[in-house]
Amino acid sequence: MSSSGTRNGRERNEWVELYEALDGERKCFDFSFQERLPNDCVGIKHIGWEKRTSTDYYWDGLKREKDNNFVFQYTLSGFGVLELGQTIYQINPGEAFIVQVPSDHRYYLPPHSEKWEFVFITLKGKQAGKCWRYLYETIGPVLKIQPDRKLIHLLIKIYRETKEGKVTDAYLASARGYEFVMECYRFAKKLERNITIPNSLDPAISFIKTNFHSPITLDDIAAASSVSKYYLIKQFKEHLNTTPIRYLTKVRIKHAADLLLNTNLPIKKIATEAGFSNDNYFNKVFRKMVGMSAGSFRKYKASIIFD
After folding, report:
1. Axis-axis angle for helices 218-225, 244-262 (nearest 10)
2. CA distance 39 to 106
3. Which of 117, 88, 122 is nearest to 105 (CA)?
4. More confident: 133 or 37
């Protein structure tokens, strides 16, 4: 059994609790639409956010549905156990496991774990299966993923969209599934720029990512991180070459850009959902960062790489 749980688990428990601010209670969603897509298309079968505290939580991969499905489950706090044949893995915060259903595996909350909080997605389709096989071959069944990686933020984004009722048909669900599969490939191929971020910054980054739509301040970010704001500024400058507030603004602008390209919401509404106090200030900041107005960005379907 992996021995890294004690080492990493406690360090990450603090930032994980901040995720609980994400739109209220945890939920699980099943995807069922009238539209029938070809079998080789990627589809989403389930997505959810759970916190298990009972050893009744136990899944046997040989006693589940007969159709081929592919599970990605990322630990936020606590830990669980994955058994693959005779091999046992402890799945700690910052780690995900991937399995195919049905197959010879079991995952569960063991008696010596107080809780297991995780977010998961279950995909279907031949292309999802190809991706899972590639991940197994290049990384293995357990993936170590920092919470600031795009793969995890995409998973949270899909969960949030589902919870808000924005994934309305099989085609949109398939598009989100393909997006997740492609991000898995990017992660496996290490195409995302690798910036070493210390664990001490995880609470601040997670707090920003989950509360950017609210009127948060530097003091709020520092309080969530249990450090002084001066220390926080120093850490952001040293490791990310920016300040906490600039990082927050970047997250807000990225979210606004996504809404501009993928929704018909009025710009005034987008400004509010992105955490800006009014649309005039939003337009000023957007133009300064992106180089064009929000209206022009939407009109010309601009593709901007903010990084």
Report:
1. 110
2. 26
3. 88
4. 133
The C-alpha angle with vertex 73 and arms to 112 and 204, in degrees rounded to 5, equals 85
268: Cβ–Cβ under 8 A, 6 or more apart, which residues?
Answer: 279
Per-residue pLDDT of 128-178, as tens digits, reads 999 999 999 999 999 999 887 889 989 998 998 999 899 999 999 999 999
Cβ neighbours of residue 174 closer than 8 Å, sequence gap 6 or more: 37, 41, 42, 43, 44
Q: Put the strands of the sheet holding 116-124 in their side by side order.
A: 28-30, 43-52, 116-124, 69-78, 95-101, 142-144
Bridge partners of residue 260, in order along the sequence: none
In angstroms, the Cα distances linking 170 to 48, 174, 221, 256 are 18, 6, 38, 25
Beta strand pairing call for 87-91 and 28-30? unpaired
Dist CA 293 CA 285 (whole Å): 9
The secondary structure of 211-265 as a DSSP string is HTTS---HHHHHHHHTS-HHHHHHHHHHHHSS-HHHHHHHHHHHHHHHHHHH---
Nearest to 57, CA basis, from 120, 10, 132: 120
Q: Which of 121, 125, 126 is nearest to 161 (CA)?
A: 121
- Three-class SS state of 130: helix
- Global confidence as pTM: 0.60
Integer Cα distance of 154 and 124 in angstroms = 18
Cβ atoms of 38 and 73 closer than 8 Å: no
> Do residues 11 and 199 touch, judged by C-beta distance below 8 A?
yes
Structure tokens at 286: 């957007």
Of residues 277, 273, 271, 275, the one with CA closest to residue 293: 271
